[in-house]
Design brief:
- This is YitT family protein.
- It is found in: Cell membrane.
- Keywords: Cell membrane, Membrane, Transmembrane, Transmembrane helix.
- It holds the Pfam family YitT_membrane.
- The structure is a single chain.
- The protein has about 200 residues and is an all-alpha fold.
- It contains 8 helices and no strands.
- The longest helix is centred in the first third of the chain and has 24 residues, at about 10-30.
- Helices cover about 70% and strands about 0% of the residues.
- Helix 7 (about 150-165) packs antiparallel against helix 8 (about 170-190).
């Protein structure tokens, strides 16, 4: 299949926009003590027990998936994913110094934070990169077996949230689930390679 390539300047703008959206979404969830799926959710959960910044934990947890990307998806995809994951890690740790939120409704944080994360991931997917983490596995399985990225991500996120119920209140768990639904709704509806040809192809 022919793959359309974005100009370099479009990729730069997309990477900055996608990582910023994802970082702000993650920041809103963190401020409301909500969780999410993927390595972001694991980082949010682990940050309650380990004195390492959220951004630092996020990058560390992504490292094994960067290796997978290198061998399964190609060096270009791996390097761009490392860049995107690193940018989100830095942005998440910097945002508290740039934004002060006095009132944040947790329902709004769950819905809007989830949508921002989903849109950020979507932008990166369409420019043949990702945030690393389970995104790498999701993209590989979609292109290898044709399974919807949104459905795979939802299954992974569900397992993480089920585990999280041991550590957070039922109310926060429900709102965290709402956030995950928002993320995966964006991906399931909008990320369909047959409709958008500038997509990643795994290595043969």
């Amino acid at each position: 299949m022919h793959i359309n390539k974005h100009p370099s300047y479009e990729n730069v703008i997309a990477i900055f926009t996608g990582t910023l959206f994802a970082a702000v979404g993650l920041f809103l969830l963190q401020q409301s003590h909500l969780l999410t799926g993927g390595t972001a959710g694991l980082a949010l959960l682990v940050s309650h027990f380990i004195p390492i910044s959220l951004g630092g934990l996020y990058f560390i947890l992504n490292c094994p998936f960067y290796l997978m990307a290198w061998f399964q998806m190609g060096k270009r995809f791996a390097l761009s994913s490392i860049l995107c994951g690193g940018l989100v890690s830095v942005m998440v740790d910097v945002l508290p110094h740039l934004i002060t939120i006095e009132v944040l409704n947790p329902v709004f944080a769950a819905v809007f934070g989830g949508l921002l994360l989903g849109v950020g991931m979507l932008i990166l997917f369409r420019h043949r990169t990702s945030l690393g983490g389970f995104n790498v596995l999701v993209l590989f399985l979609q292109h290898k077996f044709g399974i919807s990225a949104g459905k795979i991500q939802l299954a992974i996120d569900s397992m993480i949230l089920i585990t999280s119920c041991l550590f957070i209140s039922p109310e926060l768990l429900i709102l965290s689930i709402v956030g995950v639904i928002m993320i995966n709704m964006v991906l399931a509806i909008n990320y369909k390679p047959e409709r958008y040809t500038a997509t990643l192809q795994p290595k043969k």
